[in-house]
Write a structure and sequence with these properties.
Elements lengths: L9 H8 L5 H11 L3 H19 L8 H14 L6 H15 L3 H13 L6 H12 L8 E2 L3 H7 L20 E9 L2 E10 L2 E9 L8 E5 L2 E8 L2 E7 L3 H13 L2
Helix pairs in contact: 1-3, 4-5
Length: about 250
């Protein structure tokens, strides 16, 4: 029997889905996975399993006969001195398996343990912004010139991020960096309003949002929309009204 190929990075796939990798580690995993069939398969299987759990497709109502038998066996097992908990679990498992529910229950229990729900996209974006605020993490390229910032991303991401000069709207560009969100490398453009930092995360796609929508996580405001085939998320400690003003200035700028 042929053995399945192995990869010493496959455990990082689970860590990524749980939101436990920082931007650099996630970007490195994405580059590795592009050429690793083991990690590609693991990503697909874990994503499918999580989707099944979130849609509730692993749930089956227990038949009354099974419930009656389990109740009786639990009651009979309580007085016993030798590992009662293990004994009850084994008896319960045999009863469930006899009705064809064993595989479903096993999958549900295993996946609920292995696959805790990871952070949503808004939480990832805000976490990326918070990481960037640490000294030395804000920008990989520092410049107020869009014609300097935009070429810097060539070869670092698989798309050309739109970089706009919003100085006239009092949101000057100050640089950019490579970041990671939504399970892929993204471009993060850095703007300012007075002493407030605005991170604009962008990557190809269509979020189906022509008008910006605003929200909040961990005390930070964010606004997201899609435009010209790009998904855009702006996050800052600016007031929500000023962050929406930034989004509108971006949308109007050529």
């Amino acid at each position: 029997m042929s053995r399945m190929p192995e990869c010493d990075k496959v455990l990082l796939v689970q860590a990524e889905l749980d939101g436990e990798l920082d931007a650099a580690a996630a970007a490195a995993l994405a580059a590795h996975r592009a050429d690793c069939p083991v990690c590609q398969a693991a990503t697909a299987e874990l994503a499918q399993a999580r989707a099944l759990i979130e849609r509730g497709q692993l749930y089956q109502k227990m038949p009354q006969e099974v419930r009656r038998r389990l109740t009786a066996q639990l009651a009979a097992a309580r007085p016993r001195a030798s590992p009662p908990r293990l004994r009850v679990v084994r008896q319960w498992w045999r009863s469930a398996a006899s009705f064809g529910l064993g595989a479903t229950c096993a999958a549900a229990v295993a996946l609920l343990v292995v696959l805790p729900r990871g952070p949503d996209l808004a939480e990832q974006i805000v976490a990326g912004h918070i990481r960037a605020l640490q000294p030395g993490h804000l920008a990989d390229v520092t410049s107020t010139d869009q014609h300097t910032v935009k070429p810097w991303f060539d070869g670092r991401v698989d798309f050309a991020p739109p970089v706009k000069d919003l100085a006239a709207a009092r949101f000057p560009l100050s640089g950019g960096r490579l970041d990671y969100a939504g399970n892929r490398p993204v471009a993060a453009l850095v703007y300012q309003r007075d002493k407030h930092i605005i991170d604009l995360f962008t990557w190809p796609g269509d979020a189906g949002l022509n008008a910006p929508e605003i929200g909040q996580r961990q005390g930070y405001n964010f606004v997201h929309w899609s435009q010209d085939g790009m998904v855009l998320w702006a996050v800052s400690d600016l007031e929500a009204s000023q962050l929406r003003e930034f989004a509108e200035a971006w949308r109007r700028s050529p």
